[in-house]
C-alpha cells in the first residue's frame, strides 16, 4: 500500500496549564493513495484540528505528519501536496468565478491564457460550464461549493482535504453532491480525506471510516465493519441506531455482559420461539419503517419494522413478541 498520509502519534493541545484543551490525542493513522477516507465524529471531537495539522494550518504539539512519504510536520501549507475545501467555501466575492478557480495558478504566476483554459476545464469537470464570468453571489450554494472544489483541484493536489463541505446544503442537494463527489474522486484517483459528523454521509461515500471521539480514534474500518461490529459503545451509538444492552438485560436477552442489537434485525412474531415479549410503549412513523419501543427485561428495546405491503403496525400498549437470529447480536467488550 502506498501511503498518501501518515499520522504518527499526532496530538494537539491548545493553551497551557489548567485551561489547556487536548483537542487531538495520540492519533496513528495511514491513509492509502487513492482512498476515500472519512473522519466521522461529533462536533468538538477534534476532526478539524486533525485536518488543519495535515494541511499545515495548525502545528501538532506531539507526533509527526507524513504526506507522500515526506515528513511535513513543520512544513508550511504551500509546501504540502494537499489542498483544502472548507465548509464556508471561502470564495472571493469581488472576483469572477473563473478568476476564483484560477487563483492558485495566479499565485504561481502561470500565464493568463493557460489559467483561463484550466479554469474552464475544471468548471466543466464539476459540471458548471459557462458560469466563468459570473460572481459568487450569482450562484446557488451548491454551485458555489462546486466552484470551491474546482479551485481546490486546479493545482492537482495528491490529497484533497474536505472539512464538512456539504454541511451547509439542504438534504436533496447534499445527497446529489455526495454521489457527484464520490464519482469525481473515483475518476481522478485523488486521495480524499473527508470530514463529516453525518453517519449516513460517511457510510455511503467512504472506502474506510475513522470514528473520532474526544480527540481519539475509536475505530478504523470499512463502513460495513464499523456498522456490523462496532468496537465500542460509542461507535455502536454513533453509527446507526442501536440497542446497547447491559447488565441483567444483556445477560437474559443475549447471554453477554454487554451487547448490541440493531433495531432492523428485530422482527415481530409468535409467542413461540420469541426472544423477548412486552408492551409497546412508543410508536414512531418514519416512512420507510416504523420504530417501536418495547418494554422488556427491565429495559426498552427498539425495533424498526419495514413498511411492507399490508403491514399492520402495533399500537402503544399492545404486547408484542420479538424475534431475532443469533447473528444479530454483537458482543461489546465490557471495558469499552
Ligand atoms: P470538530 O472539528 O470535531 O468539531 P475541532 O477540531 O474544531 O473539532 O475542536 C476540537 C477541540 O479543540 C474543541 O474543544 C475546540 O473548542 C478546541 N479548539 C479548536 N481550535 C482551537 C483553538 N484554536 N484554540 C483553542 N481551542 C481550540
Ligand atoms: Mg470541525
Which CATH-level-2 architecture of the largest domain? 3-Layer(aba) Sandwich
Mean pLDDT: 93
Put simply, the count of helices is 9
What ligands does this structure carry? adenosine-5'-diphosphate, magnesium ion
Helix content: 25-40%
Q: Which sequence of SSEs, written as H and E, runs from N to C? A: EEEHEEEHHHEHEHEEHHEHEEEEEEE
Percent in strands: 25-35%
Count of distinct strands: 18
| Sheet with most strands | 6 strands, mixed
Give the low-confidence spans: none
The first-to-last residue Cα distance is: 30 Å
CATH names the topology of the largest domain as Rossmann fold
Trace the largest sheet across and list its strands.
Answer: 6-7-8-3-9-10
**Coarse shape:** globular
CATH homologous superfamily grouping of the largest domain: P-loop containing nucleotide triphosphate hydrolases
Can you identify the CATH class of the largest domain?
Alpha Beta
Secondary-structure-based class equals: alpha+beta
Describe the structure concisely:
It contains 9 helices and 18 strands.
Topology readout:
Blueprint: E1 3-14, E2 21-32, E3 36-40, H1 47-55, E4 62-67, E5 70-71, E6 82-85, H2 97-107, H3 112-125, H4 141-153, E7 159-163, H5 171-188, E8 191-196, H6 199-205, E9 208-213, E10 216-221, H7 223-228, H8 233-238, E11 243-246, H9 247-254, E12 258-261, E13 267-268, E14 276-285, E15 289-296, E16 299-306, E17 319-323, E18 329-331
Parallel strand pairs: 3-8, 3-9, 6-7, 7-8
Antiparallel strand pairs: 1-2, 1-4, 4-5, 9-10, 11-12, 12-18, 13-17, 14-15, 14-17, 15-16
